[in-house]
Amino acid sequence: MNSFVSHNNADVSRETSPGYGDLLDVSRETPAGAPESPLARAAMAARRHDETWPRPASCRVIGVANQKGGVGKTTTTVNIAAALAMHGQRVLVVDLDPQGNASTALGMERDNQTRSIYHCLVEDEEIRKLAQPVPDIPNLWCAPATIDLAGAEIELVSLVAREARLKRAFAAYDTSDLDYILIDCPPSLGLLTVNAMVACDEVMIPIQCEYYALEGLGQLLRNVELVQSHLNPGLAISTILLTMYDGRTRLSQQVADEVRSHFGDTVLETLIPRSVRVSEAPSYGQSVMTYDPASTGAVAYLRAAREIAHRAQRDGHSETARRA
Length: 324
What we know:
By secondary structure, the protein is α/β, with parallel strands linked by helices.
């Protein structure tokens, strides 16, 4: 594992929106390169305050899953990973989505010659050999996906222990040099997603703050229960993140309240607002954390990542807590 060490309606006020804090109106973005703006100052102050985020006692393997498309799985994976890495955590992103959007957002080369996570699942290649350092973000690596992964669902069917291929790959090397492994799952409940759930310890579910947010969530929860019962008893839903929140609409607040009433403390306090910068960043091969760190989206993901890091300390799983 030494190769890793070497190198994301208008009557609803902000005050009544949990976790929205002092973010500016989501309809107004702060241009990049405006360090004197209030939002930029807030971002820089948050970074200074959070320079020493607690490191987990052992590597946390988190699958980011929701079979509904367009809820922010890839965006969440990329930006949470970038924010963690920017605060000293050692992070590996495993792109398990055949679309490869996480790989694109992290600036990975993806051509016919690229060795990808497909070769790990189907040909038993070590993830360590596939992982590439992410440009401009120290402590962050990505095991990319290519279009070959689209055929993996079919090819895995005939393989022995097909649901545990990724878990076996993780077990093949020492993860002590990593603090987090984030797995970006495809928008389905097929074999690739099952492989992620068998391989990980925790599931993070991004939920869009819109009408169809909870549709299909029940099936995802049932699948998690099935994996817990038959394949991975230690699996837990540790984090739910509300995305695409628009404080100007009553609907977003209603969805947020509904999710919190069902899942309680599992839901992060931070809400991820709609943000043009978050949508633009992948087209430049970047996370929003590097593309425009002063934007509302970047500040929100920074706060969400901070919550995730500090929850390990709160629950007694941090390196500091274990030494104490």
